[in-house]
Design brief:
The chain is built from five helices and five strands; from the N terminus they run βαβαβαβαβα. The longest helix is centred in the first third of the chain and has 13 residues, at 32-44. By secondary structure, it is α/β, with parallel strands linked by helices.
């Protein structure tokens, strides 16, 4: 069993830099459909004590966000799961789907650290990633 796995998009990549001990299946710019297509089989074959998820922020109208996130979460085997919430400002809004899925699985949803965000308003700063990493230990 892995101690820690991080899955998802660019925010997952940044979180992996703060949690170097974790195995990461992450790529910047990826939406949830792309992640499932390329990483789901490999990630779901490796149970982990802790899984950190950042997916949905790059989804567009052509991606069935809730369906893809459910498919991923159903396949992931973990003792504890943390979702990094992309916020309510992302379109289409993955926030609501993440909250529903996390509640069904008793997962923890972490907000992006609003006082430690980069100028793009999407990605945390280095300090923000450290905060996210520390919250998942």
């Amino acid at each position: 069993m892995l101690d820690c796995m991080i899955i998802g998009d660019s925010i997952a990549v940044g979180t992996a830099m703060a949690r170097k001990e974790c195995v990461a299946y992450a790529k910047g710019g990826w939406n949830s459909w792309q992640w499932n297509k390329d990483y789901l089989a490999k990630a779901s074959s490796q149970p982990a004590r802790t899984v950190i998820i950042s997916l949905g922020a790059n989804d567009h109208k052509g991606v069935k966000t809730e369906q893809e996130l459910r498919k991923m979460r159903e396949a992931i085997k973990a003792e504890r799961v943390f979702w990094i919430d992309p916020g309510k400002d992302r379109k289409p809004v993955p926030h609501d789907a993440i909250i529903r899925i996390a509640q069904e699985y008793n997962d923890t949803v972490l907000p992006r650290p609003k006082d430690h965000m980069s100028s793009d308003g999407v990605h945390p700063t280095g300090r923000g990633y450290k905060i996210l990493g520390d919250q998942t230990k």
